[in-house]
Design goal:
The chain is mostly helical and 136 residues long. It contains three helices and two strands, in the order H-H-H-E-E. Helix 2 runs antiparallel to helix 3.
Amino acid sequence: MKKFFKEFKEFAMRGNVIDMAVGIIIGAAFKAIVDSLIANFIQPLLNAILPAPKELEEGAWAAGPAIAAFIGTIISFIITAFVLFLIIKAMNAAKNAKKKEEEAPAEPTTKVCPFCQSEIDIKATRCPHCTSELKE
């Protein structure tokens, strides 16, 4: 049982799991902002463009407000998805920049023979191709 909890702790403390949790929380908060934008600004505009008929029979469906609500939901999704795309793209760019900084250039393992211009092992004292002695 201890091993199970230890594995769970390692899983939960990985960077990508914590990043995902933060992303979900930020996404939910951002969705509330977008929903407010849709409800308070875009929805009234859509309702003005697609007004409901003035006289409806009892039980009839008012297409204008329903269509406006659907379009508002689509706009909300598009705005949320686009902003989350931009956030993830920025996070990936920052992560890639950090990786490039961390990567140290590898030390060379070969050198060029000054006599025959062949590529040889860096530790070689004699060229295997032209048999010239190499000065260190």
